[in-house]
Design brief:
- The protein contains 12 helices and 12 strands.
- It is an alpha/beta fold.
- A 7-stranded mixed sheet has the order 3-2-1-4-8-6-9, with helices on both faces.
- The protein is globular and about 70 Å long.
Length: about 375
């Protein structure tokens, strides 16, 4: 049993150190003044009347030449004033955009995948850029993505997302945990073994999406419009999946303010791993689960019968994770969250175990609707 701990944590320390090195070495690309690529932004929305005015204002401020991009909004059966807000905005601004309605008859179980698929069929841009209606965008967002695309020739681009604003302790812990996912996802992409990305800030080449038959193969899984698609791109073109670390493209979204919505989201995220078809994300998910089981055991051992080896393992685990988080949070402009690392360090192993168990439940509530996993 002792050697299981030593070997497992040794591998874990090496992995986290490797992730830190890869994050530092991910190259930065300059912002081109006039990128030549054409982009189509796809936004599927449902009952986002509160958030849409902010998103629309951010789109209005984009620095990329408006002749180079357009937007397709997909109305996913909104029951509030979302549609009115977008129509009213478009009447008074010169953004190239259209609104389509989600087709419930399309043979794709996921409403979001269904909406994106419809939009891509109508898209004029060579690069599809996806975000969510509850996000905030920097003015250089599209210019930064187009610049990265032209300099790397990537087929799939994952870009950073952060939680903001963050006020309560609950929100700060969420933001801190979320940053670890962004950093780990970026590092795996750097290793050419993509595991995680976030649909609030991804882009991919339209022609390759069509070549790979889009969401075929995961159309019956309600979630995964981002990760399953990235895995598909990576399987066909492993060198063409890239992470854009540039601060000019960091998208912000709000953390959850209540436990119920938080639990439903995390249950949705945790439920995806068993549908992964590539071996690397499955292996990482199982390994992280195993390490956190051992971490819980170590915590109880430290409480009841601590010895030097136990404290050494705890100290090394905290140290490598702390360094990794410093690097990620510095890039995301959230370095003040480091104060909350000890709390996350203690809680995270229990959190992983709880959601691993919860994910066995085969449904969750999202956007007011029940979805099967």
């Amino acid at each position: 049993m002792f050697w299981i701990f030593i070997v497992s944590f040794s591998i874990y320390f090496i992995v986290v150190i490797l992730f830190s090195v890869i994050w530092v070495t991910i190259p930065s690309y300059k912002l081109l003044q006039q990128p030549n690529s054409t982009l189509t932004v796809v936004i599927v929305f449902r009952n986002e009347a509160f958030h849409l005015p902010f998103l629309l204002a951010d789109l209005e401020k984009q620095t990329l030449d408006r002749k180079s991009w357009d937007i397709i909004f997909v109305n996913d059966f909104s029951e509030d004033d979302s549609l009115f807000i977008i129509n009213n905005f478009l009447k008074n601004h010169s953004i190239q955009a259209e609104i389509i309605s989600n087709n419930i008859l399309l043979e794709i179980a996921s409403p979001k995948k269904r909406g994106i698929s419809q939009a891509i069929k109508r898209a004029k841009g060579e690069l599809i850029v996806c975000t969510d209606a509850d996000c905030r965008l920097p003015s250089t967002w599209l210019q930064g993505i187009a610049s990265f695309y032209e300099q790397t020739h990537a087929y799939f681009i994952s870009s950073p997302v952060r939680f903001f604003p963050i006020i309560s302790v609950f929100e700060k812990i969420q933001a801190l945990e979320f940053s670890t996912l962004i950093g780990s996802g970026a590092a795996c992409i750097g290793l050419h073994r993509p595991t995680m990305c976030n649909g609030a800030n991804i882009a991919y080449k339209k022609s390759i999406f069509e070549e790979l038959q889009g969401f075929t193969g995961s159309e019956n899984v309600a979630s995964g419009d981002d990760e399953f698609l990235m895995h598909k791109f990576a399987k066909a073109y492993p060198q063409k999946v890239k992470f854009n670390k540039s601060e000019e493209v960091v998208v912000s979204t709000s953390p959850h303010t209540n436990l119920k919505s938080f639990f439903e989201q995390r249950k949705r995220w945790a439920s995806k791993w068993e549908h992964y078809k590539n071996w690397s994300p499955k292996l990482l998910a199982v390994f992280i689960f195993f390490i956190n089981i051992l971490a819980v055991f170590i915590y109880f051992s430290a409480f009841w019968n601590a010895n030097n080896i136990i404290w050494l393992l705890i100290g090394l685990k905290f140290s490598v994770e702390f360094v990794f988080l410093i690097l990620i949070l510095y890039s995301l402009k959230q370095i003040r969250l480091l104060w909350w690392v000890p709390i996350l360090f203690v809680l995270y192993p229990f959190y992983v175990l709880i959601f691993a168990l919860i994910s066995r439940k085969k449904n969750y509530i999202w956007k007011g609707r029940k979805h099967a996993v």
